[in-house]
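Workshop exercise sheet. Pairs work together: one partner reads the sequence aloud, the other fills in the structure field after running the prediction. Swap roles for the next sheet.
Pair: D.N. / O.F.
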Amino acid sequence: GGRGAGEGAEAGLRIRLTATGGAKLSELAPGPLPLYLDGSQAIPGELYRQLVADAVSVVLRPADSVGTPSADLPLPRAHGFEEECALIPSDGRTHRGYRLLSEYFACPERFLFIALDGLARRFAACGEATECDVVILFRRRAAALVGSVTAANLRLYATPAVNLFEKQLDRVAVTAFDHERLTIADRTRPLDFEVNRLLDVRAHRRDGGTLPVVPMHDFAGLSYDWSDALFYATRLTPRRLPARERRANGRSDYVGTETWISVSAPARASRTEDIHELSIRALVTNRDLPERMGRGRGTAFSIDGVAVSGITMLRPPTPPRAPLGLNDGAWRVIAHLTPNQFGFAGRGTDECDAGALRHHLALYARPEDAVARRQVEAVKTVRAEPVSRRAPGAGPSAFVRGQRLHLGLDEAGFDNGRMVLFGAVIDRFLAEFASINSFTETALETTGREGVTQWPARLGRRPTI
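Structure field:
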């Protein structure tokens, strides 16, 4: 067909895949093949744009078989946005669009993944071949990539990692003289861990019994009888430096935070008098460990209990940062309460300044991060128009009404060709505001109305009230 023939192609990328250990390609049955786009300067961003936005055809043929007809493959797709790829666990209070924003502004490179689909069926037709070529044709030629892309820019077996894990904290003693108590992950190593979020709290009575303690401001609390329930609230403060640490100027520039917990029984305050201590399971971090790890590329380490020969950091870890909601930053989070996809966009053909969307994104772009702030300011226009489309997916054929969103970005605000990556995150963020039986379809444009790419329609998942 037209797509298989690569009509209008101006450039291409050849990827040679080789089976190791003497295996034949026909003996392999790989699932989706993720590739991390590595490199310096503009190569990863431009390569992402070419693969995600400019690809018109993908063909596969055995490398050592002359005359074998090539076979079409699906176009490359962005990888890493799926829920199973999440770095930050969801706590149910917000939709996944906010998680994507948090992860993007903390580490944009974690989304520089694409995936190749359909390899298993094509490998089965490769006979005795041990190598094959995957050729991807593009509608646009990127001058920055000509003669610059090597195998080192396409990494197999790469994955993002996050300094966040579950841990049972030390018991918290409860006395009648303290309104709130400090949570400590490990008293023997107080500086090695920082509490990120409480997951489960149990109250231990003096008679040996235990009681669940649920968050005060959480849907989970609605399932408990208030006349017989215990609730907790937390407060986050900057860590207080001991005098000895202040004199030594600390072991790093990162101060960190402390999490305080208070327990109450709204219906019967005397219930808290029976509590002897609290046991807490929480998400914690290694505090300032990223600052003290090797900063150069190629740093290698191993993990006990994992069947791998070695692990190498392709990029240095990002430095630890204080939570965005600390101190007066909490007031800015109130802006999360009101938006939907209509509140971000103008209607019909009218241009709409994207001030509402910029303000929302600015909650995640830290003031000290000049690159992130410049990207947010590059969001110039958002406009919506009602459209009808066949419902995406493999279910019964049906037509639904939705919104086509035109996102206008200023290319000057994006270094190293990262505009399409930024747009991919915003596309999925806006899609989370669509309700059930509706959809969004985002088109990325430059400020001059030049079309860059369009993402497929995404069905809404937000329940209606």
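Discussion prompt: Residues 329-459 form one domain. What would you look at next?
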